[in-house]
Amino acid sequence: MTEPKQTLSEQILELADAQCSGTITESEMETLERLLTDHSECRREYLDYVFLHVSLTGVATSGELLSVEAIEKSILPRDTSRTTPPKPLHLWFTQTLCILVCLFSIGFFLFFSKDEQADVPPQVVDKTSQYYFDENTTPPEEVATLSETVQATWELLGKHPAITKHFQPGTVKLTSGNVAFAFSGGADISLVSPALFGMERKNHGTLFSGTLSAHLTDPQSPFTLETPSVEVIDLGTEYEVTVNEASETFVHVLDGQVKVKPRRRLPRFYWNFDQLEESPLTDTISGNAIRIGRNAKRIPGLIGEGAVRFNNKPDASLLLGNGGGIEVGTGDYSASTGVTLEALVISEWQTPNEPQTKYPFDYDEIFRKEDGNYRILLSFQNDDGASQTQIPDVERGPCLSFGLFLSGMGYNELDMPLDGKEGRPSLEEIRDGKPHHIVATYNGWTGIKAIYVDGKLCMSHRFPVGTMIISGGRTPAVIGNLISGNFESLVGREPFNGVIDEVAFYGFALDAATVAQHYARVQQGKDYFDGQLNNFVMQEKEGGNVLLNKGEKMKFAAETGEPIF
């Protein structure tokens, strides 16, 4: 009868027994070392067996580590007063030799295992991250690849952190060592731990905290680095940037020249609808025309000269254009480190108090840009499936919803129940026929997503600091509706019912004090900017830029982005 073949575990334990009994041969020892080297998963079982054998010899007491003193005691003559006769010298010598061999083996393999773990770099997946899968939308383009790691411990922020050689927009958290990336726009970026760094586009990155060095050889492909207070624009040079715990920015130019300017503090778009009746509606800042659906009617303003009434019909809509977007992550609606939607509304929403269970659900859109899952929306909603996208989960029922796609988190909505609880307005209060100031913000520097009503914070949720927005693209933005098909028709399926005025879109998060200030001005019959927006725009265009040349260093203030001399 054929003997059953030994398993790997049985073979190792048999050799370990021979080792501990002192009968192992040189060739068997070589076999044991080879097996333990090739099969690291068996080392723990081997070590447990050896420790058990050693403890049974009486050299170590339970719970103690073997010491030199314990080994020395094992080879000293026994107390002759004891009744048990001493073991022959050759047995003591054999036992002690066995223990020393075992201890040497244990130390060898523990040390070997530790070194092996320290030397193995983080696992790198040689494919694009799967954070951004959306079957209805082309994912963002690859923005960077991994160049080098030096004793680095790092991860991508998100639900399913991964390490990959190819990066779509996302945020890297580096906790030790150094890591370098090559951006597809031409910039080489090297991070020094600890650091938090966002990769937004092929020519744009964000340093939330820490230190990096940047090198760019082609001045025709500028690279912009954003920090909490400034933008550093590299025109073919080499420089270092540090963001400290106080959010101050330090810039040191090693070669060439960089331009540093304060981050923008004004809206990208502002639709106040105050143009003359005979003139077309336009964006106040850019002058871009607005296309008006047949059932969107110009009326006297809630603030200023004009506003727009929507009557819940499919062609009640304002088509705004796509802001120059071509693909996801492009155009003026592409916001990465923060966004704000602000509007003054009178809601005549006809939804019932209970959540609707059958399609079509009654959504009243204030603002929506529908780039698949990379959409931006601010709307009144009442459905029975909101928990699929809610963060955090709330009771079903009428709510004010603020939806964004966050890198590593996917598309999600902050749904504020209109229940009158915990400082939130009720549905009846929202539909009381009075104007209400509604502001939705997301701040990537703090991770806070928030909704304000009439100057007060009503609901918020915190994501990991550095979590970025993915937005922008070819689809036009719409006020007062969702148009997901033929945009030329101006016909949508989620029309607003009521009045909308003073709509603003910002590429950053307004803080609570500014929101309260804007509401106070509305109560005084003024616009958000106290009639000074044109002056503010001119001031921002004309000043604030600082040119730094080779060898120059400068610190910039956390709040204003102004240089500190």
UniProtKB/TrEMBL annotation:
Key words, A-Z: Membrane, Transmembrane, Transmembrane helix
Q: Name one GO molecular function term.
A: sigma factor antagonist activity
Top-rank lineage group of the source organism: Bacteria
Gene3D superfamilies associated with the record: 2.60.120.1440, 2.60.120.200
Pfam name, any one: Laminin_G_3
Q: Where is the chain membrane-spanning?
A: 91-112
- UniProt cross-references to PANTHER family, sorted A to Z: PERIPLASMIC SIGNAL SENSOR AND SIGMA FACTOR ACTIVATOR FECR-RELATED, PROTEIN FECR
The name this protein carries in UniProt is FecR protein
